[in-house]
Amino acid sequence: MLRLIKYTKPYIWLILAAIVLLFIMANADLALPDYLSQIVNVGIQHNGIDDVIPQAIRVKQLNRMVLLFSSDEQNLVNQAYQLIEDTDDDALLIQYPALAEEPIYLFKELSTYDHDQLEPIMARGLITILIVEQFQDNPEGAEDLLAQLPFDPSQLPPGMDLFSLLEIAPAAQKDQINTQIREQFEVMPQTLTEQLATAAIQREYEALGVNIGQIQTNYILRTGGMMILISLVAGITSISVSFLAARTSAGVARDIREDVFTKVESFSSQEFNNFSTASLITRATNDVTQVQQVTFMIIRMAFFAPILGIGGVIRAVDKSPNMWWIIALAVALLLLLIFFAFMAAMPKFKIIQKLIDRLNLVTRENLSGMMVIRAFNKQNFEEARFDRANRELADVGLFINRVMALVMPALMLIMNGLSILIIWVGADQIAQSTLQVGDMMAFLQYSMQIMFAFMMLSMLFIFLPRAFVSGDRIAEVLETENIITDPQEPKTFSEPFSGKIEFKDVYFRYPDAEEDVLENITFTVLPGQTTAIIGSTGCGKSTVVNLIPRFFDVSRGVVLVDDVDVREVSQCELRDKIGYIPQRGILFTGTVESNLRFADQEARDETLHEALEIAQASEFVYANPEGIQAEISQGGTNVSGGQKQRLSIARALVKQPPIFIFDDSFSALDFKTDAALRRAIKERTGQSTVLMVTQRVATVKTADQIIVLDNGKIVGKGTHRELMETCQTYQEIATSQLSKEELA
Amino acid sequence: MSENNQNNTKNEKRPESKPPVRFGRGGPHAMMRGEKARDFKGTFKRLIQYLGKYNLLITFVLTLAAASTVFAIFGPKILGRATTLLFEGVVAQISGLGSGIDFPSVGAILVQVAILYVISAFLNFLQGYIMSGISMDITYRFRQDIAAKINRLPLQYFDKISQGEVLSRVTNDVDTVSQTLNQSLSQIITSTTSVIGILIMMFSISWTMTLIALITVPLSMIVINLIVRTSQKYFMQQQEYLGHVNGHVEEMFGGHIVIKAFNAEGESVNTFNQLNATLYSSAWISQFLSTLMMPIMRLISNLGYVAVSILGGYLAIQGSISVGDIQAFIQYVRSFNEPLMQIANISNILQQTAAAAERVFEFLNEPEEVTETANPVKLKRVAGRVEFRNVRFGYNPDEVVIKDFSFKAEPGEKIAIVGPTGAGKTTLVKLLMRFYDVDGGAILVDGHNIQNLTRVDLRQLFAMVLQDTWLFNGTIAENICYGCDGADQEQIIQAASAAHVNHFIRTMPGGYDMVLNEDASNISAGQKQLLTIARAVVGDPPMLILDEATSSVDTRTEVLIQQAMDRLMHGRTSFIIAHRLSTIRNADLILVMRDGDIVEQGSHEDLLAQNGFYAELYYSQFEIQPA
Fold first, then answer.
1. A125-162 as b/e, with b when 16 or more CB fall inside 10 Å?
2. Is any Cβ of chain A less than 8 angstroms from the Cβ of B370?
3. Of A269, A409, A698, which has the smallest distance from its Cβ to B124's Cβ?
4. Which of A712, B311, B485, B602 is the most exposed, having the fewest neighbouring CB atoms within 10 Å of its CB?
5. Are strands A104-107 and A631-632 parallel, antiparallel or unpaired?
6. What pLDDT score was predicted for residue A739?
7. CA distance linking residue A621 with residue A610, whole number of Å
8. Where along chain A do the CATH 3.40.50.300 domains lie?
9. Between residues A331 and A88, which one has the greater pLDDT?
10. If you measure CA to CA, which chain A residue comes closest to B78?
């Protein structure tokens, strides 16, 4: 797969954009629980009060607080608040009804720096007042809170509180008390400070007559608005990522497909043999589609999972640094579970495909061998054979299904156990005021998102390697070096072209094969003559003629056409001179005419008719009312084998080349048609050189020259009569086909 | 593309065989399949019948599934109570009104929930465990029944159905049913239970919040519907263009040699690039649309989440719900969509299952071969006299292949049947072996109508060598002794020697134990043919049928086979179908067939002397015009 990475280059910007969007998307996704936590913490618990600095405060309260502050601190406070007395401002009166009774301080805008400076000061003041007042209201209930102060107010004289003490205390004692309080506050957990301060502010607002419900509702609506915005951002980015990923993956697939196709079209028969046609088709079609899916998944998921996972961890740790181990534990359990399930099921997964193939094979054999099976009365044997395959498949399938039956509930249990553990540990931290309830709820959701990310990743780890195989199969094709190439400076054939073919000491051997297919082949085909090559199956007849149009190249020796080595002219010019008719009649989708014109777009209609005539095809072509406009379906399945052969002969005739090569092209024709066809070719294309490969003695009897091949060697050369006397192999072939009288 | 090549392609692209385990049937196209059973109710009745003893167990398992779901559904609500306790504890602590968090209660709740979850997981596992056992057993039974059925169906049946179709029933259709049993059935139950349970839980928390959350349901349905409809259009288009591209690839690669010979590479690449560009234009849209479902569903689900958060916050301030309720509610909302989508897909799944099951049952219901005669004749010694008496036969009632066919063969005679393709030569053999039964007239062996014999007995009388050299994926020895049960090694070697194939077998790796691969492509066509001859020899039956047994080999190998067959024919009544007339010159009787009738009969010399159809056929081979 990595070998195809260069195909992503044109789309690098799309991919980068997708990654950026994925970052935004992951963050948006992760932000939502955070806002929920704010709704719970601030909106519900703190009544929407999201600051430890009150917007307004009664003069008497502030004056009491100031007693706790140093002179620097007092200055800051004085800067921050503005005194309001006897105002006519109705808006203010509505907001703070207490203003009618007494003067209040209103908070002014401060710089961020000053704001940050003021926060701990005000928190200290507010909380101290809160504790003191609560003790006065309810001495028993305030015990927990009192622990936060450095002294025990119950030891003060009756009627005195901390503030009245501070008012009358000498400067030295006052400083000492204030330092103690300050130290105490420095070690107080931030969460608790906030909680207590907002509680104090709430109390103060109540005293001021402020409508707290309104504040709360506003806060929730504001936060909710943000959440909607963020959801939309997440949705839009997610859709955009899909868009980018779709464009990229379809584009990559298109580019790869084009390159594979172009590459394969440049292959010679040699490469086709190495890969096999079926395999090349799969590589150019299914494998490319597979790569498209994988590319999409990588962009969509493989990039997203780590971003989401890492982002989740960062946020979760930020919410509660002490609980990271819970997530680590859950993730470890998850990975362990997946690992073990994978280890248990994977080997079975590997064999299950084999077992399915086996079942299919046995079924197919049962279907294709039906006559034989019944003729031999072997139904029971076959059923037993099927039963074995079926049993094995069922057993392995059962094992895998049972592993899966274990994995899903175990997975759910881990997730649910995680929630329970978080609440248990969280409860403790909440009690110690190091965690707020809303934060714990957010933590719960982060942990789920992290688990989700890890699950996604492990699925990818299982799935991707298998998908990568397709990529490698494609890369193999693309990286194949063409065996047959045009020369740097091609020669050209001299005019006029005569059509002479000469083999000189030709050897041919497939790469990696141990033996030569052809050995020491030497013969000459004179212009205008008919030469036939005969021999039994696998003797190398076809290989000989395939060397002429350079479908293969010789291993040793040389093939000359018109006295020029075929490797020294361009393949295009060489093949232009040759009309090649393969054994299997290959036709393409279209019409009879489009197939004939494949040889020559500009051919005149008379040429087409004549070609059909010679090829003995006009009878069946014109028997069809559509004539040469008749449709040919893909693979030519709507015409018979013999008709296909005749049409492909006609196609080569349209080309009117100086050399004809018939590679066993008459095999599907009956003897009558075969004979008529050869007679017609002889009459009409007298000038052309003809080379034909065949197994039929009857077909070669009239040839000017017959070459007899056996096991890749020439064992006889001459006319029918000569060979009948000199060549034993030829005699064997001939007598096996014809009787003595017929051979005469 | 030639036949040869098509076979290759077929080999690599097997009928899509999916492993029996898949992770659900989801995916963007899950809702696109529109397969329907013709008789939905009847098929399910039949399926329930087929499940037989398992029905009770399945009901039990489904109860387990439902119980497991119910237990799991209680989780969030109870867990929410723990959160509420925490929250209230903290608030009380701060406002100085309480003694802080009530740890014992929180602990008790958590233990309670943990127990619920463990029970739920266990029940879930149990149901999966039992269900996979049931579904695998049913799958196994289905396949076994189909395989047995294949052997009991009349050959006639396979004239109208392709191999691929039968194969697809054995694998894909059975798989579909199996998967429904294994996953979908319990999924249907759990989804339904989930949806109902979650609804109850949500309503118990707050009906206003539930209504708000439910608004997202029709919204998602509409959106899904819209996306599916649009994306389906583009998906089909993409498939069509992909088909064009792949078709072009197949055609061009298949005819590569012609492309090269005619210098047509450039043109081919041009055509391809056009098709490829067209494909791209619809491929990315299709890919985009088909994957749009996830993000949009997520968006809608997120909006539902936000709505619940806002409303929940507001209600919590009002004091009508607790913080833990919000938490629980959010969990419910999050887990509501999935079972809902599954429910929406139920009818599809059931339809698919019914369609698949219907095809399987249809196959299992096909009428089988006509039962044997009640009192079959047992022949002790068979001389091999065969007579066709006014035989009439057609593959279809309205298309008679054999019109009125009569002839007699004396024991030990060699009968050749010749004639052009489609004249009905092979049909005669099929009738003789009772692969098909005659429509009129009778076939007699030693004077007995073959319909009075059992098929097993009848077929035992014949050795058969066919043009199609069928061998199975086993060892050479197993293939040779196919015709006889438990032939010993010596008999096998004798048969192989008689077929001139002993030497060849000994040169192969493993010798007689060499395993023939699929399609027996690790030995040549001629050798395969010789093996089928050896196979025929082992049984030593009184009669022999050779149907174009040498057409696929070259003439020199043919001589070898011919010799083997001549030895085989000695002393047996033999029927030879051949298209190379040179091989049957010495037959005792040559039957010349044309269009289902015997047009001429006699010895080679007689027939040539008649100077009729046979003479014409014969001479056409040699370009010698009849005198």
1. bbbbbbbbbbbeeeeebbeebbebbeeebeeeeeeebb
2. no
3. A409
4. B485
5. unpaired
6. 61
7. 12
8. 494-577+659-709, 587-656
9. A331
10. A420
In B, minimum Cα distance to A263 occurs at B269
The answer to whether the CB atoms of B310 and A224 lie below 8 A apart is: yes
B526-585: pLDDT as tens digits: 778 888 888 887 877 788 888 876 665 666 667 777 777 777 777 788 888 876 676 777
Match 């361009």 to its residue by tokens: A570
Name the residue among B33, B110, B122, B35 with its Cα closest to residue B78. B110
Cβ neighbours of B472 in A, within 8 Å: 365, 369, 385
Vertex A536: Cα angle to A533 and A537 (nearest 5):
110
CA atoms of A239 and B297, how far apart (whole Å): 11
Are the C-beta atoms of B231 and A246 separated by less than 8 Å?
no
- Contact between A694 and A700 under an 8 Å Cβ cutoff? The reply is yes
Tokens of B441: 């007239």
The answer to whether A404 contacts B21, with C-beta atoms less than 8 Å apart, is yes
- Cβ distance B448 to B380 under 8 Å? no
CA dihedral A122, A126, A132, A138 (to 10 degrees): -160
d(CA A31, CA A39): 13
H helix and E strand count, chain B: 23, 10
Using a CB-CB cut-off of 8 Å, the residues of chain B touching A373 are 151
Residue range(s) of every CATH 1.20.1560.10 domain in chain A: 2-25+224-479
Residue ranges in B319-381 assigned as alpha helix (H): 323-334, 337-365
* CATH architecture under which domain A494-577+659-709 falls: 3-Layer(aba) Sandwich (3.40)
- Name the percent of chain A lying above pLDDT 90: 16
What's the full length of chain A, in residues? 744
Predicted ipTM of the assembly: 0.80
Tell whether B586 is within 8 A of chain A (Cβ): no
Contacts 24+ apart (CB under 8 A), B425-429: B425/B547, B425/B577, B425/B593, B426/B547, B426/B548, B426/B577, B427/B393, B427/B401, B427/B402, B428/B388, B428/B402, B428/B575, B429/B464, B429/B545, B429/B547, B429/B575, B429/B577
Return the structure tokens found at B532. 């089928």
What angle separates helix B555-569 from helix B525-538, to the nearest 10 degrees? 0
Which helix (H) or strand (E) segment is A647 a member of? helix A641-655
Q: Is a pLDDT exceeding 50 seen at residue B4?
A: no
B121 CB neighbours in chain A (<8 A) are 409-410, 412-413, 416
Residue B570 DSSP code = T
Q: What is the CATH number of domain A587-656?
A: 3.40.50.300
DSSP secondary-structure letter at A482?
A: P
- Note whether B472 contacts A: Cβ–Cβ < 8 A: yes
Q: Please give the pLDDT value at position A60.
A: 83
Q: Which CATH code of 1.20.1560.10, 1.10.150.170, 1.20.120.1730, 1.10.286.20 fits the domain covering A2-25+224-479?
A: 1.20.1560.10
Nearest-angstrom CA–CA distance, A599 and B594? 39
Q: Are B147 and A383 in contact (CB under 8 A)?
A: yes
Confidence band of B509 (pLDDT split at 50, 70, 90): confident
Taking the C-alpha atoms of residue B620 and residue B212, their distance in angstroms, rounded to an integer, is 88
Contact B580 A737 (CB under 8 A): yes
**Dihedral angle sign, alpha carbons of residues B515, B516, B518, B524:** positive
Among chain A residues, the shortest Cα distance to B11 is held by A278
Is the pLDDT higher at A153 or at A629?
Answer: A629
DSSP per-residue string spanning B398-453: TB-SEEEEEEEE-TT-EEEEE-STTSSHHHHHHHHTTSS--SEEEEEETTEEGGGS
Give A79→chain B minimum CA distance, Å.
30
